[in-house]
Amino acid sequence: MIDRHNIRENTKEVKESFKNRGEDTKILDQFLKKDIRWRELKKELDDFRAERNTLGKKISELKKSNKKADKEIKRSGEISKETKEKEEEVEKLEKWLKDNELCFPNLLSPTTPKGKDETENPEIRTWGKVKKFAKDVLPHDELGKMYGVLDFER
Fold this sequence. Notes:
The protein is mainly α. It has five helices and no strands.
């Protein structure tokens, strides 16, 4: 997972890493747009909460001095309604951002060879002897089915 802050601050490097992995970078552009919107909404919510707190104090002072606070109470209700709508949008954006953030591949080291898969990358070094088996080796999923320890049909 790549941290959201890292994506924001190092967009060029993240895109380059995506390209080197053969990934599409359009999702990053979409991610960054939604992240900007998410941050804008968070700021608006903070501003609404600050205004609501100020209005709450003002309403309290007006009521203590036996003055009408109808305008302030009405505005406070409007702020609450707007806040609720913005919070719902923030939650949707947050979920989308987190879901996509979890799917992003890790950044590649600058020394990593560029290629779509192992066939396009050069073998730099090997160690040890490669084991040769007398029979064909079965993949783990086939072995699990054969011994009854894996159940893929559920």
